């Protein structure tokens, strides 16, 4: 291993300054205005792969943001690892809550602070640098392919088509993804499951314009009040979602599974402290980690309507809106759940109110078995670099594309993530510890060696 | 009357172009950025009064926006009319819904289109021009005083202090206000009552930052969902407000009163059509007009929280906000209702959620008896200019200051309004028919003569 750690140590300043150049490109996939930045980010990574030693690297345009593909094939008998990652990031708003500008990365307290520091530029770049090591030192044990998209944060809307059209080019034994968290470097973990996602936006309309709340209030139905009524009715007093059929496809975990998962260290007080709340609440009958890991949810991501400016404006608003997302568990189907939501939500609208509900995007949940060469290699490579066997953990997050890969390409994914829950991804002051970045590179190199060995 | 109508007719183009100059000043009292415009609007009206023939006109600074006072006293035995109006306007947002820029008045279809065309620049300016006629033609039958403030749309927060400090200067027999509507010029009405207002803003906080809805969703209480729950619980299935004590001081109207009020012409279909709804709903057991005229309400004026930008952002928000106003009926006290609201709203917050609730402003309801010289003069002056006896109407709107005048100055107000419900005040495309503006001037001149006669 010496050579690996030495190489990483000798080059870490360059690795970081290259990553910072990538982070400085504000590639926010949700925003029209950042379209040129998406191209720049893809071009940047194309150059990085070629410099690292790729045989080829090509940018494929899609109906949305482009996909970057690169590869270096060493031998027909070697297994092939397809690395997936994304160069797009979440919007940085609310900007006023950042301690330093989101797209000007800085290192403070041993952490990189910036939008994308972890999700996913920081984690993706570990693979680029691991790949560089393997090429430069001639220690490449597996064929390597890269598929890097720019629409993960908006639902990977064009990637399924891309996979279908390039099935042969993407052929591989395993897909390796670093876009998740581990408990800590001291208590390493590998994500063995993910939740799905079904994201909808609703628009509730009352009168055809904002009305004077005095001259009309009392007789005219207020769409903001109605939206609150409708949303409130979506959960019962036990914290269960009331949409008919919502739980139909949920497969309850066995007592054994739940006992296994309960071994995952979880400090409730520390967890509450880290997010500044004095109490946790959720679906009755499940633990905090189960509520996040193995149960579906319904959360308002955003709500707005009427006058939201300074001071007091006495209007009865014309419209109210909400962005509502449901996290899904294995066997729930994103589009089916969205259809159930829309049917129910429309049906509970009171007379005189019109409802528009739209499915924005989603994806299915994912579970990885623990006895495959793919998972074994992950477990061993982590143990190799962090000197501790990782715990398998069911994460609450979603990477909808993972199940699409299985469906379209017939390839299982391994989620070898090095983020921490404290990295505040999707939030102001996103950060990523430098040591995780470096240990990640080392572990990924181990994985390629271990996987070659496991497949022998 | 010949001379009056002739004078108005000969000068109407000048009247309108002067009014337009006033409207072009964006005097939005709720916005810090418009502070200089508030001064400009007050100065403009000061010059108008002096040009019209006022003995004096002076701008008094307050802790907020200035108050303009002007007067012309003709005789010690003549009764004194104190004209009240406001030069501030509501914010114009949402700007994209205006058919022409809000602060560039235009005349289309016989109407003035602009923010403030009716509320209250258009209606206030009728008094200025009526006053000009009386001065120029020597037909001033009453002493005239003007008190014009710049904070009506934000709760007249500094006017009570001003009245207390200038009680002698403001001494009068009646306060004449044109800041309300009439049914139509064909079915004239005089507002004999107003609702009060209690306006609060609430802030609901969960986690100390926006969280990833996947990594936390299910276990962490979502403040947007909670705000919806809390707001939904503020009304029961009969449309009644559930805040303990909310109805305690409400004096039910007698069957006789309700029969009288029911005579007011109201076309439900036309009303629904005018605001583009297919159904009306409100408190059970009351008619549409009663729900607006004699019953208290609770309406969301604005609500916001989480990500409200383009696309999909998967966060569990840190905060949610709402602006909530309650319209009050006689004997309900604005501050008492706000206190009841805040106490109740805070008490229903679930554990782990912190609530801030703030009383922004408010005022009491108002009722005017119909057998006083003040009201008789109003009724007769309307009959004089519109050839029809006006119907007394209880309006759903609020002019909180009216009850303050009675309390501090001991003077009753008469609400001689010429707006129409179709004027869309507080909404995009506010408008005011030119004929109402001109008929208003004529009626106001009549009022001064009638009142002198009634007081004899």
Q: Assign an overall shape of chain A.
A: globular
Radius of gyration of chain A: 23 Å
- Tell me the strand order in the biggest sheet of chain A: 1-2-6-3-7-17
Specify the biggest β-sheet of chain A.
Answer: 6 strands, mixed
Order of helices and strands of chain A: HHEEEEEHEHEEEEHHHHEEEHEEHEHEEH
Overall pLDDT confidence of chain A: 95
Chain pair forming the biggest interface? A-B, 100 and 101 residues
Reported CATH architecture of the largest domain in chain A:
3-Layer(aba) Sandwich
What is the third-level CATH name, the topology of the largest domain in chain A?
A: Aminopeptidase
Tally of structural domains of chain A = 2
Would you count the extended β strands of chain A for me? 18
Helix content of chain A: 25-40%
**Name of the top-level CATH class of the largest domain in chain A:** Alpha Beta
By DSSP (H or I, 4+ residues per run), the number of helices of chain A equals 12
Strand content of chain A: 15-25%
User: Oligomeric state of the chains?
Assistant: homodimer
Q: Can you identify the CATH superfamily of the largest domain in chain A?
A: Zn peptidases
Description:
2 copies of one chain form a homodimer. Chain A is an alpha+beta fold. Chain A folds into 2 domains: 4-193 and 365-455, Aminopeptidase; 196-250 and 296-363, 2-Layer Sandwich (Alpha-Beta Plaits). Chain A contains 12 helices and 18 strands. A 6-stranded mixed β-sheet of chain A has the order 1-2-6-3-7-17, sandwiched between helices. A 4-stranded antiparallel β-sheet of chain A has the order 11-13-9-14. In chain A, helix 1 (2-23) packs across helix 3 and helix 1 (2-23) packs across helix 12. The longest helix of chain A is centred in the first third of the chain and has 22 residues, at 2-23. The mean pLDDT of chain A is 95. At the A-B interface, strand 9, strand 10, helix 5, helix 8 and strand 11 of A face strand 9, strand 10, helix 5, helix 8 and strand 11 of B.
């Amino acid at each position: 291993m010496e050579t690996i750690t030495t190489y990483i140590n000798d080059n870490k300043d360059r690795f970081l300054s290259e990553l910072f150049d990538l982070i400085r490109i504000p590639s926010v996939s949700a925003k029209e205005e950042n379209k040129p930045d998406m191209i720049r980010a893809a071009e940047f990574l194309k150059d990085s792969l070629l410099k690292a030693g790729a045989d080829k690297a090509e940018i494929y345009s899609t109906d949305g943001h482009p996909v970057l593909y690169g590869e270096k094939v060493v031998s027909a008998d070697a297994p092939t690892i397809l690395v997936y990652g994304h160069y797009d990031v979440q919007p940085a708003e609310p900007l006023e809550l950042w301690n330093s500008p989101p797209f000007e990365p800085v290192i403070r307290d041993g952490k990189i602070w910036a939008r994308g520091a972890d999700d996913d530029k920081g984690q993706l770049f570990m693979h680029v640098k691991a790949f560089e090591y393997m090429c430069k030192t001639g220690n490449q044990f597996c064929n390597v392919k890269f598929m890097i998209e720019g629409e993960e944060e908006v639902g990977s809307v064009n990637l399924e088509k891309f996979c279908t059209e390039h099935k042969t080019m993407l052929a591989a034994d395993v897909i390796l993804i670093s876009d998740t968290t581990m408990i800590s470097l001291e208590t390493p973990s590998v994500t063995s499951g993910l939740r799905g996602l079904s994201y909808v936006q609703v628009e509730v309309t009352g009168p055809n314009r904002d009305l004077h709340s005095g001259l009309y209030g009392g007789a005219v139905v207020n769409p903001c009040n109605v939206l609150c009524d409708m949303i409130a009715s979506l959960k019962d007093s036990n914290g269960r979602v009331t949409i008919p059929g919502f739980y139909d496809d949920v497969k309850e975990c066995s007592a054994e599974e739940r006992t296994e998962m309960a071994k995952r260290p979880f400090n409730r007080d520390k967890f509450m402290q880290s997010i500044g709340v004095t109490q946790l609440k959720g679906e009755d009958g499940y633990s905090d980690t189960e509520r996040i890991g193995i149960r579906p949810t319904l959360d308002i991501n955003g709500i707005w309507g009427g006058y939201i400016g300074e001071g007091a404006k006495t209007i009865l608003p014309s419209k109210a809106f909400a962005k509502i997302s449901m996290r899904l568990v294995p066997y729930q189907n994103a589009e089916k759940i969205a259809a159930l939501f829309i049917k129910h939500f429309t049906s509970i609208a009171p007379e005189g109110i019109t409802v528009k509900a739209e499915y924005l995007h989603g994806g299915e949940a994912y579970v990885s078995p623990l006895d495959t060469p793919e998972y074994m290699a992950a477990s061993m490579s982590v143990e190799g670099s962090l000197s501790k066997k990782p715990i398998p953990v069911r994460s609450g997050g979603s990477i909808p594309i993972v199940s699409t890969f299985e469906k379209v390409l017939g390839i299982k994914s391994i989620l070898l993530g090095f983020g921490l829950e404290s990295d505040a991804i999707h939030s102001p002051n996103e950060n990523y510890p430098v040591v995780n970045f470096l240990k990640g590179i080392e572990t990924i190199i181990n994985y390629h060696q271990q996987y070659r060995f496991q497949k022998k």
